[in-house]
Amino acid sequence: MQGPQGPGAASACRVSRGTGEPRAENRGTMDSANAIESGKDHAKARTVHAACPHDCPDTCAMRVTVEGGRVVKVQGDPDHPTTHGALCQKVSRYAERTYHPERVLRPLKRLGPKGSGQFVEVGWDEALDDIAQRLRAIAARDPQAILPYSYAGTMGLVQGESMAARFFHRLGASLLDRTICASAGGEALAATYGGKVGMHVEHFAESRLIVVWGSNSIASNLHFWSYAQQAKRRGAKLVCIDPRRSETADKCHQHLQLLPGTDGALALGLMHELIRHDWLDHDYIARHTEGWPALRERALQWPPERVAAVCGLTADEVRALARDYALTRPAAIRLNYGMQRVRGGGNAVRLIAVLPCLVGAWRHRAGGLLLSSSGWFPVQRAALQRPDLLAGRRPRTINMSTIGDDLLRGPSPSFGPRIEALVVYNSNPVAVAPESPKVVRGFSREDLFTVVLEHFMTDTADYADYVLPATTQLEHLDVHTSYGHTYALINEPAIGPLGEARPNTEIFRQLAARMGFDEPCFADSDEALARQAFAREDVDFAQLREVGWVKLALPEAPFAEGGFPTPSGRCRIDAPGFGVPDYVPNHEGPESAPELVARYPLAMISPPARNFLNSTFVNVKSLRDIEGQPLLEIHPHDAAARGIGEGEMVRVYNDRGEYRCVARVTERARPGVVNGLGIWWRKLGMDGTNVNQLTSQRLTDIGRGPTFYDCLVEVERVAGAQAATA
Ligand SMILES: Nc1nc2c(c(=O)[nH]1)N[C@H]1C(S)=C(S)[C@@H](COP(=O)(O)OP(=O)(O)OC[C@H]3O[C@@H](n4cnc5c(=O)[nH]c(N)nc54)[C@H](O)[C@@H]3O)O[C@H]1N2
Ligand SMILES: Nc1nc2c(c(=O)[nH]1)N[C@H]1C(S)=C(S)[C@@H](COP(=O)(O)OP(=O)(O)OC[C@H]3O[C@@H](n4cnc5c(=O)[nH]c(N)nc54)[C@H](O)[C@@H]3O)O[C@H]1N2
Ligand code: SF4
Ligand SMILES: [Mo]
Questions:
Q1: Other C-beta atoms within 10 Å of 527: how many?
Q2: Which ligand lies nearest to the CA atom of residue 338 in the structure?
Q3: How do residues 368-378 score in pLDDT, each as one tens digit?
Q4: What pLDDT shows up at residue 153?
Q5: Among 271, 280, 547, 601, which one is most buried in terms of CB atoms within 10 A?
Q6: What's the gap in Å between 608 CA and the centre of ligand 1?
Q7: What is the largest CA-CA distance in the chain?
Q8: CB 131 within 8 A of CB 107
Q9: How far, in Å, are 428, 436, 639, 710 from residue 440 at the CA level?
């Protein structure tokens, strides 16, 4: 067992320095195309417009203060309406993360066995020449044996999928289905409304009823929460729907603590009540929806008693919520992705998205629903990613959520070639992907060639053949959309790259050159890419530079008169290819797998930790200290039945694996459900694992997404073990 300060932590930086050169803390290098550092006014303080790069709906506008070539402050921009000068605690520490002594600042080549974390520093030329040669050899057999693996380490359009996508398209590599977060809900929303679109976050301040559905907003959507607080002060009622009594549930007037994966049944029950009491907006339904009669018939089969039994609620709770939702104007739903990480997540989102149409909530700008606003942004993806470079080839697609299985697959006619090379950037799959025992086995394959572009020696970087040092948001240019508000933002580099770090774009540019890709698009600078991201008439780049952001021109109440971005302009209750939505029970639950429930009677969810962002920041000690240690919240009854006391070490297990952490006996967990909080770095956990040791690779009903919160486990006390103190 290793505590956070044990040998596991030390291995994070077990790097032998080949050159013996001292490590430059900040050379303020000018070699990035976009470094704006000026040697002359080095000592003078100046601020630049920046944007938070993280996978968080708030996409804050930041002001970064630079003094003497060093970032001294990262603050929320007081002039940006939704940021209103405040960043979350994590990102106010962004400079601490950037100047972290364990930053990878030179290319590293593996010395020891995979996973051992033993590397030697090498020069960029040596690393890139070797990588290009290895990729060329594999591509000569079949480029589809090469797989890019990336997600939202940065949400930037430039440092995300621009030059990287061009590179892999030109190569003809396997395509990656980027499903790990939001594809169930995203595709479901698009099937229903025609796009990932919804209310403006600002207008929640005027709502009279806010249903916070599957979202711990205080942790993961802080700037929405401040609008909800304004509404609350003006007398609005706040209702939280969540299996966990989260910090957000504490602050709402009412908390419906349902069983995980039963949201679809609850939505049907609400519809049942709306129909029975004739609380429907018949005019809105007739003019702006299609397919209601079939769903109406289905909902009539869901009286509150049936719903209550499935959801683990009382029938009165269902009735009361229906009454509030029907009779309060304006009523808004803040739906978040937490509720779609289960088998039926897509259908549940489709059902919930119909509710605001049934009561005509969309008629008011403070009514309706917000899951994501990303579809409002007119991003020129084809210009950035250049799918035309595929030149007629149609590579296979690999789902990032099944990377464990797929790395272990041999060649076959249905799968295609074995995966021989992985290029990972903006992601930490060994920690975040489901069923890590298989992911780790896959990454351990000696015949797999793995390149990881990173800031730190993450769990994934430990398995790399080469680790390439990437710049952070303070060191590169980018432009951003948001999935929680409707402003496009710019991120100007505040300082030059630290050490020998390079932006992702530059790394792929240089790899492209070595591969002999000579199309002019591989010479585009970061600024050229940033300018291509939006059409000029939608988002003026000069204004982005001047102000830091541009608000999209959109109607205040987007669907007051219908006008959904579907072919008919109507909300599609019955959508082609999706049918009429229904309740779909969990893969691992009493309806689908009673025999599994008998062996593993506890449902485990693993929602985000407040002080981490997915697995990012776990290595920032001041934030890790606040989280303490990997925890499992368990209800007092479930704990007592297993002889588990507060603070004791427990073993959480199922057929896929086991994981050790510390029990927190608390009513934040409902009976029958345990909450494994946060995606810890495996090597900073208690036994070199994290919660994904237990999650499954089964997929959602819509969108091929992961089902992290559809997971049965059993828990037992580890006899004689003393929980480590953080
Ligand atoms: N501090 C912090 N902020 C984050 C993140 C983070 O890791 N830390 N992650 C970011 C990312 S990647 C995303 S995608 C976003 C959104 O990510 P979300 O996962 O939506 O984030 P939360 O809102 O924190 O958590 C979701 C809530 O859903 C609850 N939940 C779990 N299962 C169910 C269910 O079946 N039904 C219902 N109704 N609720 C359920 C959980 O208990 C939790 O309180 O947040 C982002 N913001
Ligand atoms: N059990 C469980 N598992 C989950 C979830 C859960 O709720 N429960 N949530 C899921 C969700 S919603 C998501 S979105 C995924 C998140 O999965 P990931 O997108 O992999 O997120 P992170 O763990 O934050 O890892 C991002 C990595 O990118 C690196 N990075 C950041 N910026 C840059 C850059 O500019 N260049 C390069 N090269 N690297 C950069 C960071 O250092 C970090 O290590 O995890 C999923 N996994
Ligand atoms: S993580 Fe979210 S709340 Fe924190 S600074 Fe970034 S966008 Fe804002
Ligand atoms: Mo996510």
A1: 14
A2: 1
A3: 999 999 999 99
A4: 97
A5: 271
A6: 6
A7: 77
A8: no
A9: 12, 6, 31, 21
Residue 488: φ, ψ to 5°: -85, 145
Chain centroid, CA 677 distance in Å: 15
The Cα–Cα gap between 651 and 98 comes to: 35
Of 428, 480, 336, 451, which Cα lies nearest the Cα of 151? 428
Please state the atom number of ligand 2 nearest to the C-alpha of residue 55.
14
Ligand 2 atom nearest to 468, measured from its CA: 38
> Can you tell me the distance from the alpha carbon of 704 to that of 340, in angstroms, rounded to the nearest whole number?
11
CA separation for the pair 171, 512 (Å, rounded): 9
In this predicted structure, what is the pLDDT of residue 721?
A: 62
**CA–CA dist 117, 462 (Å, integer):** 5
How far, in Å, is the centroid of ligand 1 from the Cα of 219? Answer: 8
The residues of the chain scoring below 70 in pLDDT are 1-43, 721-726
State whether the beta carbon of 242 lies less than 6 angstroms from ligand 3.
no
User: Do the Cβ atoms of 478 and 534 come closer than 8 Å?
Assistant: no
Q: Are 123 and 96 in contact (CB under 8 A)?
A: no
At 265, which helix (H) or strand (E)?
Answer: helix 263-276
pTM of the model as a whole: 0.94
**What are the tens digits of pLDDT across the range 327-369?**
999 999 999 999 999 999 999 999 999 999 999 999 999 999 9
- State the distance from the centre of ligand 2 to the C-alpha of 608, rounded, in angstroms: 11
List, chain by chain if needed, residues with CB within 6 Å of any ligand 2 atom. Answer: 53, 55, 151-154, 159, 180-181, 425-428, 431-432, 453-456, 458, 470, 504, 606-608, 613-616, 679, 691-692, 695, 708
**Ligand 1 atom nearest to 260, measured from its CA:** 35
Query: pLDDT above 70 covers what percent of the chain?
Result: 93
Ligand 1 centroid from CA 60, angstroms: 18
**Type of residue numbered 318:** V
Cβ–Cβ under 8 Å, residues 291 and 580 = yes
Q: Integer distance in angstroms from the first to the last C-alpha of the chain?
A: 13
Answer whether 136's CB lies under 8 Å from 504's CB.
no
Q: What is the pLDDT of residue 43?
A: 62
The contacts of residue 367 (CB under 8 Å, 6+ apart) are: 199, 207, 329, 330, 331, 332, 356, 360, 361, 557
450 CA → ligand 3 middle, Å: 31
